[in-house]
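Re: that chain you flagged

S.,

Sorry for the slow reply, it's been a week of failed gels. I finally had a moment to sit down with the sequence you sent. For the record, here it is as I used it:
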Amino acid sequence: MSEAKQEFDPAAHLDTMAPALGLAITPEQRQGVIRFLAAAEAMAKIVQAAPVAEDTLELAPVFRPGAAGPGATA
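Prediction finished late last night. Pasting the structure tokens below so you have them in one place:
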């Protein structure tokens, strides 16, 4: 069975994720957050469309804040 791809709804995403993340979005902030989510989704589509061969993918190292490295002073 194939799944129909749903179009991204930034308002529904905000309404679902804000409470799950413990975010209080005021009515004054709501339209700005919705515009940002729509822009972020458009940028994600561009990145996802970029051709990347599976055998060439290299993951970035893990960032650990405060970890000492060469030349670090503690």
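What I noticed first: The mean pLDDT is 86.

Talk soon,
D.
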